[in-house]
Amino acid sequence: MTLLHDQLTAHNRFGFGLAPGEAPAQDPRDWLRSQVGRFDPKPASLSRAKGPAPLDLLLGETGADKTERKKFYDAFRAQIADRLETARLSDTPFMERLVHFWSNHFAVSADKRATAALSAGFEFEGIRPHITGKFIDLLESAATHPAMLLYLDQSRSIGPNSSVGRSRADRQRRNSGLNENLAREILELHSMGVRSGYSQDDIEELARALTGYTVASMRGGPANTAAAGSFVFVPARHEPGTRRLLGKRFPQAGRDQARQMLQEIARQPATAEFIATKLARHFIADNPPAASIARIATAFRGSDGDLPTVYRALINEEAAWRPAKAKFKQPWEWTVSAMRSGGISAQEPRFLARMLQGLGQKIWAPGSPAGFPDEEARWLAPDALIRRADAALQLATRHPGALDARMIADHAFQGELADDSRGAIAGASDPDQAFALFAMSPEFLWR
Q1: Residues of the chain whose pLDDT is less than 70?
Q2: CA 124 to chain centre
Q3: In angstroms, rounded to a whole number, what is the distance separating the alpha carbons of residues 415 and 263?
Q4: Which one-letter DSSP state was computed for residue 194?
Q5: Residue 75's pLDDT is what?
Q6: pLDDT digits (tens, 9 = 90+) for 385-396
Q7: N or C end of the chain: which has fewer CB within 10 A?
Q8: What is the rounded distance in angstroms from the CA atom of residue 279 to the CA atom of residue 101?
Q9: DSSP labels for 96-107?
């Protein structure tokens, strides 16, 4: 394989493609490795749009008037635009791809209004600062973030034998029981994976340990001095007693009981294999080589879940550098790479939010704790391609005179565009159609 092939692979398969004027990395693998140390978890582009969600919307009340709701959703769309702009302009695009990977791995869905108010903060504050650390820290950050606690109803879980549980039982109050949602998803989706050796008893024990993990000032929740909408541990809701998980005992230790159980889960061989499989599927192929998964999992286990070590193992996989275009871009990747290649800024938050929703990937709203699927079958369909072509045309139409698709294509692929794609772009009836043909070329749709 040539240096140019590796350069294009580094930029397109691991990142979002070459931006106008951006030179290809001279040492592609080292360029990817260096991004771990250069990654900025709190760039200025994410501090422009605040999410001043009204407290009643944030916590699921319904009393906010029309003006307050408009302000809320304007702020939400501005945060989406900031997410786009951060990815588009980043000089560490591999790390931005990893941010989106982990945000989708620990998916919360803005289908719930309270979750919508916190989903940007979940990614910006709960995910980004932890993607260069240990997996256990990322797991704990995601599992204790208010967005996750509200989305999976952990915020309402109460230990039946806690002081609050006993009191509510005496008064026959509703919503006074144990909720297993978060515990189940931690084991099934966030760490070990389904059918990996844990039992229903393990789920229930983890759920008991997690009681007391809730959100401050939630309607009907505990009174406390923590900031409204923040994580809080309430001992009066915590189920007392020693817990047993995966054959090990965890003494009663308040909040630390669940934390120690999460550490045990993070160190399980099944967790290493599950995370390695998902990373390989995302960056290599829908069906990645078993040997690649095994080596990445070994790096995970050998480093106690040190994520930079895992990323380096992924970069070292020769399967990730094969010439075949093995991954069909998801709508988010395709949109960011189209805007990056064309130099198109995220100036119209409402349009961009609607466009991504129309493409089937409404931001922060996968509709399921499993997140958006990562396989070609979910995104490659005739009607989906028609919607992408229309979206590409709209992007170009909204930036008249700013796009010369022939120059963009030559730079993005460094002259390696196939004759058919080059001919189609050259024969377009106008510049807008030319950009749409570039964005719909096989070289651009696949990475």
Answers
A1: 48-64, 172-176, 218-225, 401-402
A2: 10
A3: 49
A4: T
A5: 85
A6: 999 999 999 999
A7: N
A8: 8
A9: HHHHHHHHHHT-
State the residue for tokens 């394989």.
1
Backbone dihedral angles phi then psi of residue 162, each to the nearest 5 degrees: -75, 170
Q: Which residue has the tokens 């929740």?
A: 221
Here the tokens at position 153 are 């109803």
The residue with tokens 């393990």 is 202
* Amino acid at the residue 23: A
Give residue for tokens 């005179």.
Answer: 401
Contact partners, residue 177, CB within 8 Å, separation at least 6: 157, 158, 160, 165
Tokens of 446: 């696949």
Residue pair 423/302 in contact (Cβ under 8 Å)? The answer is: no
Q: Which of 161, 139, 211 is nearest to 181 (CA)?
A: 211
DSSP 23: P
Measured CA to CA, the distance from residue 176 to residue 158 in angstroms comes to 6
Cβ pair 443, 418 in contact under 8 A: yes
Which of 224-231's residues contact partners 24+ apart within 8 Å by CB, and which partners? 228/55, 228/58, 228/59, 229/53, 229/55, 229/58, 229/59, 229/117, 229/118, 229/146, 230/146, 231/144, 231/145, 231/146, 231/149
Q: How confident is the model at residue 169, as a pLDDT?
A: 80
Q: Are 164 and 112 in contact (CB under 8 A)?
A: no
